[in-house]
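General statements about sequence and structure are easier to judge against a single worked case. In the encoding step, the backbone of a single protein was reduced to a row of integers, each denoting a local shape. The record that follows shows the chain in one-letter code together with its fold in token form.
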Amino acid sequence: MKAVKLAGIGELAVSEAAEPVIKDEKQVLLKVDAVGVCGSDVHYYKQGKIGSEAVKYPFIVGHECAATVKELGRAVARIKVGDRVVVDPAISCGECSQCRAGRKNTCRNLKYLGCPGQIEGCLCEYIVMPEENCYVSEKLTAGQAVLCEPLAIAVYAVERAAVNKDSDVAILGAGPIGLSVLLCSGLKTEKIYVTDRVRERIEAAKNNGALWAGNPDREDIVREILKLKPEGADVVFECAGRQQTIDQAMEILKPGGRLMLIGIPEEDKIHLDIHKMRRKEITIVNVRRQNDCTQKAIDLISKGLVNADFMLTHSFKPEQAADAFEMVAGYRDGVIKAVIEF
């Protein structure tokens, strides 16, 4: 089969690889239809690691996956050959203390698509996944199915933040995750303020539910948001993974506010203004991917509760994967979500 592999820092190559086979009766062989390029994939592409998770080359990345069922293990009962599915990239054991506590996303034996040291990703023609990770999505296009992965993270984050009709929400970073948070928050409140450094993403935010959106390179976004909401925001979703946005969040939040950390910094350590955080009694919540929210994301799109199609800005063939990664890494051409189609 055709596979796109990381061959080194900033190096992607298309090569042949052995087609995977079903080894467990509850597994499913999937033909990959489309794969989204995620910021975490770009971390591996640019730095070769995220924290202690370092790539050993060659390695297949990718975890935002739309696929079609090709073959079933003998004990698979919920799906059938030919079904189009959204793939939940997190394979949890279901038996450890975290899984039993309802925290599959922090499973002690977690295996995640495209995560070094766990399992290779889906940027290839075929993958094998457990049946429970496959969600039928017949009403969705392949692009919409790809978007269900970042949308599921947003569903989980907004639930954890307890956003309601009275909440003032700031979203710092309007990439696919930030815009997904905007869509999910918009189901709860109309008071949403968004920032980003890319003009096209600011316009996308304005056109899809943001009460206000601004560029931190052109204006003092803290001052502008506090003009609109002098008491500060109830919740800030940090979706950029930058020290600057973490600092801005501390200024924007009201006393008793909640900082939701979703973005993945390139650095291994960030710093927090402990005195400001303490005096405001800020709650900090780390968001670890999604936790059993894939079906909820599918339902939001299939029932027309959210329209995420505007995020699908660019498509590529596998042979153009390096161009896709360079575009996303450099925020070029107004890219929001680049999709590689097999």
Summary: The chain is about 25% helix and 25% strand. The mean pLDDT is 97. Residues 2-138+308-341 form a domain with the Quinone Oxidoreductase; Chain A, domain 1 fold (CATH 3.90.180.10). The two ends are 11 Å apart (CA to CA).
